[in-house]
Structure formats: C-alpha cells, structure tokens
Amino acid sequence: MKKVTNHPFAETLITWYKDHARDLPWRRTNDPYVIWLSEIILQQTRIAQGLPYFYTLTEAFPTVYDLAAADETTLFRHWQGLGYYSRARNLHKTAKHVVDMLDGKFPETYSELIKLPGVGPYTAAAIASFAFGEASPVVDGNVYRILARYFGIETDILHASARKEFTALAQELIPNSDPARFNQAIMEFGSLQCSPSPDCGSCPLISSCFAYREERVNQLPVKSKAKPQRIRHFQYFIIEQAGKVLVHQRQAKDIWQGLWEFFCVESPDLQEAINLHPFLSPLMGHAVALQAPGVHVLSHQKIISAAWLVQLPSNFKFEKPSDYQWILSSEFEQLGKPVLLLNLITDNIALKEILEG
DNA sequence: AACCCGGGGGT
DNA sequence: ACCCCAGGGTT
C-alpha cells in the first residue's frame, strides 16, 4: 500500500525539520556501524549526556573491527558514567557477531537488525531507516508523546499493547520517499517543540492538534506511575596493603553488573557488616571513616552508603574473600566504576592519592 | 505481563 | 519531588 501523497502531519514535520534540525555528528554519516553505536548510546540517554561518549567511542573504536577486538574491560571503562551497563556488554557481543559471522557487515533490514543483542524495535527501525532507507517508523518517547497529543490517543504508553498501536499509526504516516528524514524530523520535533512542557504558541501543528484543541496537552500521553524506589545500604571497605587494593567485578543480576568496586557489604550498619564478614573485625583497628557519599539515586533504587579506608601493614595477615582479588592501586583507575565510587574518590583526598598517585 | 537496569537534567 | 530521556533484556 504505497502512499502517493503524504499525510499533512508528515509534510508539516518535514518542513519544520528543514529549519530546525540540529547538526549532530551521527547525522553526517551513512555508516551503519556509527549509526548503530550512536543509537545504543542514546537509548534512554539525552543527547547532551551521550555526545561526549559518542566522540570518545568512535575515536577509540573507529570501525566494528576495532570494537570487536577490544578488551571488554577497556570498553566498560569508556562506558563508565553512562549507565545501563548491559548496553556495553551487548555492544561488544554484537560487534563480535558482525565481524565473526557477517564479514563485518551489518544486517540491512529491520527484521534482521532486531535479532542483534541490544537492538530492539526502536533501534532496529532507526538503523534500518537511517543507514539503509527502509520505511520502518521509529517509536521512541518523543513519538509516543507527539502522536498521543496530536491524534488524541489515550492508551497508557507503558501498556504492552501501546507499542503495536503507535507503531501502526506511525507506519501509516511515514513517507516512502525519504523515510529517514521523517524519522529524524518526528524525534527532533518531540525533543525541541512538542516536549513534555511544550511551547504550543509557536507550534506549526496547533490548528489540527487534538490535545491543544481539547486543552489536554498536559494530560497526554497517558503514562502509569513508576513504582517507588527501593532503599539499599552499602558499606564499602577500601582495603589497601603493600600498594594493592582489594576489588571485585560485580557479576550478580543486580545493578552495576560488570563494573568494579571495593569490598562491599550490603548492610545498614557497620556492626552488622562485621558480623556478616568476621574477617573484617581485626582489620577495623586500621580503619578510618571516609566522608560518605550522599544518597546515590538511581531510577528505582536509592543507595545509602558508608566507607572506611583500611590501610594494613605489610605483615598483617588475613584471609581475603575468595571472590575478591588484589590489584595495584594505580590500576584501579583503568577499570569501570559506578559513579557512586567516583564521587567517593573525588570527595576523599586520601583515597584519591592512593588510587591516582 | 511484570520487573530490572543508571545517571543526569528540567520543571 | 517528580518526570523524562533517540529502550532493551529477563523471567
């Protein structure tokens, strides 16, 4: 079912986009690798936050071959601070798959792209359209917002059926001629014009917008509320001896999987932490309290933490936990850490000097 | 279908 | 304090 003429909605967006498009680096290329990399970075991430990481990563790994050959520890270190660290792991998986199984060439269709680890409906549509000109509509937070307002769609955008409904509508709207431009335009429009608190007075779609006409701009899109945050308490022990520090890489299905940290006990207070790990008891004679980070806030958790610096004499003997290892203090900088620990280090000069010389 | 996964910025 | 951000994976 080819569209001969475009929907007026699409025409207006494309016209608006000609005058308002930002000059973003991933819009200057057709390289599917660079587009893919940018899209993974931008998942649930604002452009301003992702941009420095885009420059760093494209410089460190200019091609998919470079990324596939990368050491995962190095990749995690580059991803440090960006959040949602499973993206980094899936990035590496997909790069290796593309190099090893696909001769370094990315799949060129939505239905093939979506099979890649870390590539879901949005990202597959984005790559298929931007790199290969396929008319698959992107449906991201911007698109939900614009379509819900303009067409008066009441479906809860967190409901399972929402994606299907909004995608079907977007599929009707996307032109067969330069679908990539439409996808860029609708997201840019959502970001700059039809934002969560929009400036309807300057909107080119004001005369035909359902939400504006019905005075329901601030009620659309409908989105159910997030559940309250879980409160957690972490006790950190920076155990240092003979120029080395005790660390481990978080592995459990939990926050910060793949990142590195100091000896950590999840407990509301020091005494309970010691009771849980009796080897700590004789160490505490060498411990000094560090300035604790403030409450560290994640999307669904609040982490309240405390930390002790434990500098042990060389002849001090104790049995370290089996899942922890010693590394040179100076090498800690090279590992990917949670921002909570970056803040802890920044706020404590003594710690900073141990770890950064 | 429900739940989990970061960090930062706007209001 | 709450919302949102160029979402995706697991169970």
TrEMBL record:
This protein's record includes keyword Transport: no
- Pfam families, alphabetized: HHH (PF00633), HhH-GPD (PF00730), NUDIX_4 (PF14815)
Catalytic class of the enzyme: hydrolase
> What's the catalysed reaction?
Hydrolyzes free adenine bases from 7,8-dihydro-8-oxoguanine:adenine mismatched double-stranded DNA, leaving an apurinic site
Q: Which UniProt keywords apply?
A: 4Fe-4S, DNA damage, DNA repair, Glycosidase, Hydrolase, Iron, Iron-sulfur, Metal-binding
Asked whether the keyword Transit peptide is assigned, the reply is no
Q: Which PROSITE patterns match?
A: ENDONUCLEASE_III_2
Its required cofactor(s), as named, are:
[4Fe-4S] cluster
Query: SUPFAM superfamilies given for it?
Result: DNA-glycosylase, Nudix
Cofactor binding note from Swiss-Prot or TrEMBL: Binds 1 [4Fe-4S] cluster.
Q: Which residues form the HhH-GPD domain?
A: 41-192
PANTHER family recorded: ADENINE DNA GLYCOSYLASE (PTHR42944)
NCBIfam families recorded for this chain? mutY (TIGR01084)
Tell me, what does this protein do in biology?
Answer: Adenine glycosylase active on G-A mispairs. MutY also corrects error-prone DNA synthesis past GO lesions which are due to the oxidatively damaged form of guanine: 7,8-dihydro-8-oxoguanine (8-oxo-dGTP).
Protein family (similarity comment) = Belongs to the Nth/MutY family.
- Mind telling me what this protein is named? Adenine DNA glycosylase
Organism name: Aquirufa regiilacus
Q: What is the lineage of its organism?
A: Bacteria, Pseudomonadati, Bacteroidota, Cytophagia, Cytophagales
